Amino acid sequence: MAVLDRIRAEVETHPLVLFMKGTPEHPMCGYSSRAVEVLKAAGARDLRTINVLADPEIRANLPRFSNWPTFPQLFIHGELIGGCEITLELHESGELARMIAEVQKT
């Protein structure tokens, strides 16, 4: 399966996907660590994470797929939400918790 198809399958199959550097247990950059913390604080339980450091093809092609140059990248219901700063802003406004609650209802 081509890498762009693999990425598309991940974001279409899982309602809440974070492409990050490292894993939630062992994040490999501060931005990824902060994004995971904020998602957990907002109530994310069924978070699918993809370690882009473990898959160079995804790391190289995800920015092309999403038109977003940096990591982490958060997708909700197949739609790119953004990176760490946007995730933080959504959390501070309370919007992230609402979005996650809607995802976890389905």
UniProtKB/TrEMBL annotation:
Domain of life from the UniProt record: Bacteria
Signal peptide: none
Glutaredoxin domain sequence ranges: 17-81
An example Gene Ontology molecular-function term: disulfide oxidoreductase activity
Keywords, in A-Z order: 2Fe-2S, Iron, Iron-sulfur, Metal-binding, Redox-active center
Alphabetized SUPFAM superfamilies for the sequence: Thioredoxin-like
Sites where the protein binds [2Fe-2S] cluster: 29
Family the entry assigns: Belongs to the glutaredoxin family. Monothiol subfamily.
Protein name: Glutaredoxin
Species in which this protein is naturally found: Luteimonas wenzhouensis
